[in-house]
Specification:
The structure is a homodimer of 301-residue chains. Chain A has 10 helices and 18 strands. Chain A is globular and about 75 Å long.
């Protein structure tokens, strides 16, 4: 599982900082999460192949999380993309994109599918044979979702020595990988645990931005491997955090602690701060495993 | 008159090139012309004061000319702008911007005025005491205008020695600057030309992008000081230029020649070319005074 931060600063793009966007690579899928202005240039700078992105998840309709989407879609069209693109985001996103495509007389040659979100309950919005994605309802000034990406438990791993010792025919291998016991020709029943190893441990990633401190998300993100939680402000701006419905570094760490996650990644910093290390310092007083997101940084989990 | 190129490449923003946007400073006014994605970052990089921009002119609704506008307007709002902002552009621009402001629940505290253009005739769209702006109807795949910026002829300059020699009272100075003759107490009539110098020569700038080769613009831009004319393609792509309704470097030079302009600035290069000097070489075979626009370049005229 690899996470590349394209942008992790709040409010506006600036000379050296970008608004929210990140790419999660999980089980060979490339998910784009949020798409602030300049995301397509950040994708180029970070050498991420446009054509591998088939799903875009938009948390909410504040500009620093979606103003780059229309440009990215237009560029896909100019690059003669043919593969379908699926956009998951709040109701309204379809109207915004389609209006601009219509007025610029630039329809796409690829299938462009919008999956508009309105529910205030966590729901499964994407699922294939390897990954499942659920919403994490957040509390912000407009309708907002985080997203939980979970690998699915895979097949059990065949113990090749064991199946050969028992002279089991290859045609039973898939059944064994699915967890079945095997009855040999002489009537002996061999338990599956003697023929297989446990499957590779599954990983999970929760993206939670933007949100006020909100314990309602805890049951959904409990025990995830990696939690990205916004920390727009430091302690000194706690009241501003409440007013603008954002979180402080300590609040993010408190959520991580209570949800018993393995690793917390902080981001969505207000550009008022010159030294983002202070976010780590303040969060570490509550939760030990803190990483700081920064534009262009890549994390392997 | 100063022209700063924020972006002058066609189609999409890339790692080192930006889509169309430029700032014209004329008689202490700062006009923003087109606003591709990333324009607000380019304004920062080029140290142009956001607050001095009160008028934005959008040529047409292709993304590489306006996708940065919603981000710029949102940033103005975040910076607590209070001064009115006027946007001149094709019908539809108001709906695009207002839809996004409405869905992000982020209305501006400043007056945001849209002047939507629909006419196929040149018309005056802005005028104050020092500058006048007219549309230049262009031919492209969607409704498109160029813009002609003209300084107004100012007052005549007072010849202080002359008026003092004739012992003319200061209360007549404004009349003299306006071009009136003066009758002295002894009845002598002093011609204005003996009391004043010619006013400072007025300058003019024509922005013409995007357009197919189109001689209809010539009467409007005749004898301008500076013509920015798109040259998306080189000679080798002449048929592609026609198909996509763009111009070649030589076609831009032909317009400059026929319109008898003083200076031609080329831009809106297709990103397929590695060496933009070829645009100058090809254009110079037709018209002598060629400058090449490039991102971050500033021209004083």
């Amino acid at each position: 599982m690899n996470l590349t931060i394209l942008g992790c600063y709040a409010a506006t793009p600036r000379t050296f900082t970008n608004p929210t966007s990140q790419v999660l690579e999980i089980r060979n899928r490339l998910f784009l999460i949020d798409c602030g202005e300049g995301t397509q240039v950040q994708l180029r700078k970070n050498k991420i192949r446009f054509s591998k992105i088939n799903q875009v998840f938009i948390s909410h309709l504040h500009g620093d999380h979606f103003f780059g989407l229309i440009g990215l879609i237009s560029t896909f069209a100019l690059l003669n993309r043919t593969k379908d693109l699926h956009v998951y985001g709040p109701k309204g996103i379809k109207e915004i994109i389609n209006l601009q495509l219509r007025l610029s007389n630039s329809w796409t040659n690829f299938g462009l599918y919008f999956h508009e979100l309105e529910s205030n309950e966590s729901e499964i919005i994407f699922e294939d044979e390897k990954v499942i994605v659920r919403t994490i309802p957040l509390k912000h000034r407009v309708y907002t979702n985080g997203f939980l990406f979970q690998e699915k438990v895979g097949d059990r791993k065949l113990d090749l020595n064991a199946v050969q010792n028992y002279e089991i025919d290859t045609c039973y291998y898939q059944k064994i990988k699915n967890g079945k016991d095997i009855t040999l020709d002489d009537g002996r029943v061999i338990e599956n645990s003697k023929l297989t190893f446990d499957p590779i441990a599954v990983k999970s990633y929760a993206f939670c931005s933007d949100t006020i401190y909100n314990e309602n998300m805890i049951p959904i993100i409990e025990r995830v491997d990696v939690l990205y939680h916004e920390s727009t402000f430091l302690d000194s701006e706690e009241s501003l955090a409440k007013k603008t419905m954002h979180s402080t570094a300590k609040e993010a760490a408190t959520i991580a602690l209570k949800a018993n996650v393995k690793q917390l990644v902080l981001g969505h910093y207000s550009t008022r701060y010159e030294n983002i290390k202070l976010f780590k310092q303040q969060a570490e007083t509550i939760f030990p495993n803190i990483l700081l997101a920064d534009d262009g940084k890549s994390f392997e989990f």
